[in-house]
Specification:
399 residues, alpha/beta, Rossmann fold, 2 domains, 5-stranded parallel β-sheet, 14 helices, 19 strands, 33% helix, 24% strand, elongated, binds cytidine-5'-monophosphate
Length: 399
């Protein structure tokens, strides 16, 4: 499915280098061809043997760079070979060299000898990261659209400081790699604002009991990642989730349909694209108790009342330039009810996905769907990862 699949991982000398093993191993398992380059200082943190074993290919160092064992210069070969270069961890030193176009080792020479997108995952101590010189180099480098910069996280660092400078987690790097392999680095959502809802709403009866559904919000997460990686500013309104919100995405946590409605309506005006992938409850208990109800006080029958139809309300409020996309999780015939919802809720498009097929729907990392829009297009999105599906959806919206 991936149009290109050759990834060069360049490892810098920082303690976060140990996390790269997981990136290399996961990419290999996903069928990506991986080569690894280590700087001299990276080898102080992680061994060649580890990365060569995980990538099933010898890993390269500056020693290989200076040895005449290759018919062509190694940096030229690697630079031409790669569809994507990932530099992780990116150290202050390598960042400075890249910002100035310097080439004094295999890593920097390979970057200069290549034209593919480069994903950068910086990692350093907070004071180092916040130095004017480092921030200047970072901003300078990112003016070149070849370079895709990942945010650093805040948290406990290996120097026992708590602050900015933590490298993005392996799962986040892997998702970004998948995105860049899909888009070849295209930023077609640059300058766009994308508002996404994710997860299943919870309609509480009391502080511990609620009416809910099995949605985990993974499709909404994938949409947020895809939009972010394509250059958008992303707001993600999400219900309680087991995953981390991607760095750089504005997260608005909510619980009930009413809270989701408020946040979606508040954020509607500034959005260009709105994707309502949340599984919103249709009804809620009529009564809410602030105290936990004793078992014996639980009602025999639960009086219910409807919750607002958020996407239908957004459709009423939206401006003509805004695109509103809904989701329809269905069993059996997925097209007829989705078409009905597309029209009744006045959406620009709807993504109908089966929840009775193995390996798709609620909780799965994969999905399949039929994309229907108001122009009458009906496009099948065959089984793929939720991230790939998110990219297919943005590809279709861009057409
Ligand atoms: O639940 P249903 O199949 O009708 O969902 C179709 C679309 O409507 C989805 O995009 C869902 O997020 C949205 N929806 C909503 N408010 C509701 C119910 C559904 O926005 N109360």
């Amino acid at each position: 499915m991936l149009p290109s699949r050759r990834v060069l991982i360049a490892v810098g000398g920082g303690i976060a280098a140990y996390k790269i093993c997981e990136v290399v191993s996961t990419l290999f398992k996903m069928g990506v061809e991986v080569r690894v380059v280590l700087t001299r200082s990276a080898q102080e943190f992680i061994t060649l043997l580890t990365l060569a074993t995980l990538s099933r290919h010898p890993a390269y160092t500056d020693e290989n760079f200076w040895q005449p064992t290759h018919s062509r210069p190694l940096h030229i070969d690697l630079g031409e070979w790669a569809d994507l270069i990932v530099i992780a961890p990116l150290t202050a030193n390598t960042l400075a060299k890249l910002a100035y176009g310097m080439a004094d080792n295999l890593l920097t020479n390979t970057v200069l000898a290549s034209t593919c997108p480069v994903l950068l995952a910086p990692a350093m101590n907070t004071d180092m990261w916040e130095q004017q010189a480092v921030q200047r180099n970072w901003q300078q480098l990112l003016t070149d659209k070849r370079f895709h910069g990942m945010n650093t996280a805040s948290g406990l660092l290996a120097c026992d400081r708590v602050g900015a400078g933590r490298m993005a987690e392996p799962l986040e790097i892997i998702a970004y790699v998948q995105s860049l392999l899909h888009t070849a680095g295209k930023r077609d959502l640059l300058g766009k604002r994308v508002l996404i809802s994710a997860g299943g709403t919870r309609e509480h009866l009391d502080p511990v009991r609620f009416i809910g559904n099995p949605s985990t919000g993974k499709m909404g997460l994938a949409l947020a990642q895809a939009a972010l990686h394509r250059g958008a500013s992303v707001t993600l309104v999400h219900t309680p989730a087991s995953w981390d919100v991607p760095l750089g995405v504005q997260a608005i946590p909510v619980v009930s349909a009413e809270e989701m409605r408020t946040s979606m309506v508040q954020n509607l005006a500034s959005a260009d694209v709105i994707v309502m992938s949340a599984a919103v409850a249709d009804v809620k208990p009529r009564e809410y108790s602030n105290e936990k109800l004793a078992k014996k006080s639980l009602p025999q029958a639960l009086p219910l009342e409807p919750v607002p139809d958020i996407v239908a309300e957004l459709a009423q409020l939206k401006q003509p330039h805004q695109r509103l996309i809904g989701f329809a999780a269905q069993t059996g015939d997925i097209v007829t009810p989705a078409l009905e919802k597309l029209q009744r809720k006045n959406l620009d498009a709807i993504v109908a996905n089966p929840i009775d097929e193995p390996n798709s729907g609620f909780g799965s990392d994969n999905n399949q769907a039929i994309f229907l829009d108001k122009q009458g297009q009906k496009i099948e999105i065959p089984p793929c990862s939720k991230l790939q599906m998110a990219h297919h959806i943005f590809d279709l919206l861009g057409k």
